[in-house]
Specification:
Layout lengths: L10 H4 L2 E5 L2 E4 L3 E4 L11 E2 L24 E7 L2 E6 L3 E7 L7 H11 L8 E7 L4 E7 L4 E2 H4 L5 H18 L3 E2 L3 E2 L5 E2 L1 H4 L7 E2 L18 E4 L8 E6 L2 E7 L6 E4 H10 L16 H11 L7 H12 L1
Antiparallel strand pairs: 1-2, 2-3, 3-4, 5-6, 6-7, 7-9, 8-9, 10-16, 11-15, 12-18, 13-14, 15-18, 16-17
Helix pairs in contact: 4-7
Length: 316
């Protein structure tokens, strides 16, 4: 995951994790985590209903934010979406929850059940705070390195191979189809690029399924399942004996049923899928370009120019 920390995090983010005492934390409103130093582990037990938590533990002055030098590390914060690394075994994600939308945990379960060849994180805990309207997802750390971090060290064959592997995973997921825009659960899809862009909620209800129909090329209009956030920081890989293997695909929160034409188009217009490099002298878009090239050979056509005209007309 790319480190991206908002210097002034949303209040809902600041209170997501409370350090209750030495080696004891409350993750969200329900989940207690304790660290057993004697066993050199970061996961001893969890209690979802908080039965071990005294009410006065949460009074002002009884808890503090996690120690920046402790085992729970703040990884990324974008507005009110945040991620923490819990020791060396898990990530905790917290983001706004909408009753009309789906959850990332159920999306991961859908992929595990229907496309087991696609490598996804293992869900350890998932819960929703309906009062605060926030969701919490705890997943095991996926082995491997971020593609973002190793790309420059790969040779041409390895770059082609990893692009082909990801394209094959995309194609496997695209075999699952719907008659409308929807999440894996058949609920409202979250995709800001199809909702009207910045300043909107990012939610695209099913009744808007046909709004973009005219921009897709022939054969690209059916609704297929797509991850939709395949930046190089969301792809884990291992390189062994010169061979590269995709070990995990992360961040499934915007996955769902979209027009087939959106698969390649997102790679053309989605600048958030670039490499997260500073001062590299160019090449940030190479991942999008390589993956798009492989997908084109598999029958996925992009409609970037038509999408831009439609998108800009919505913002006007």
């Amino acid at each position: 995951m790319a480190p991206w920390i908002d210097p002034n995090p949303h209040p809902a983010v600041r209170d997501c994790i409370k350090e209750l005492g030495p080696n004891r934390w409350l993750l969200g409103p329900f989940l207690i985590c304790e660290r057993d130093i004697s066993k050199n582990t970061y996961r001893t037990w969890f209690d979802r209903d908080g039965s071990d938590l005294d009410e006065d533990d949460l009074y002002e002055g009884k808890w503090s934010p996690p120690d920046p030098d402790g085992p729970i590390q703040f990884v990324r914060c974008i507005q009110d979406h945040a991620t923490w690394k819990i020791g060396e075994w898990a990530y905790l994600k917290s983001k706004p929850w909408f009753p009309e939308g789906g959850t990332e945990a159920r999306t991961i379960k859908f992929v595990q059940s229907n496309a087991p060849s696609v490598p996804v994180p293992t869900v350890l805990e998932n819960y929703v705070d309906t009062k605060a309207r926030r969701s919490y997802l705890l997943t095991a750390i996926v082995p491997g390195e971020d593609l973002n971090d190793v790309w420059k060290s790969l040779d041409k064959e390895q770059k082609r191979d990893v692009s082909k592997q990801v394209a094959e995973h995309i194609h496997a997921l695209a075999q699952f189809k719907s008659d409308r825009l929807a999440s894996a659960e058949g609920k409202t899809l979250y995709e800001p690029y199809l909702s009207g862009g910045p300043g909107t909620s990012g939610l695209v209800p099913p009744e808007r399924s046909r709004e973009w129909e005219r921009i897709w090329a022939a054969g690209q209009k059916e609704f297929v399942f797509y991850h939709a956030d395949l930046g190089p920081s969301n792809i884990k890989v291992k390189v062994e004996k010169g061979k590269i293997k995709v070990t995990g695909i992360l961040d499934w929160e915007i996955a769902g049923y979209v027009p087939k034409g959106w698969i390649a188009t997102k790679l053309v217009v989605g600048t958030g899928l670039d490499f997260d490099w500073d001062g590299n002298g160019g090449g940030e878009t190479k991942w999008r370009e390589n993956l798009g090239h492989v997908l084109k050979g598999m029958g996925y056509e992009e409609s970037g120019h038509r999408w831009h005209r439609r998108f800009l007309s919505q913002k006007a």
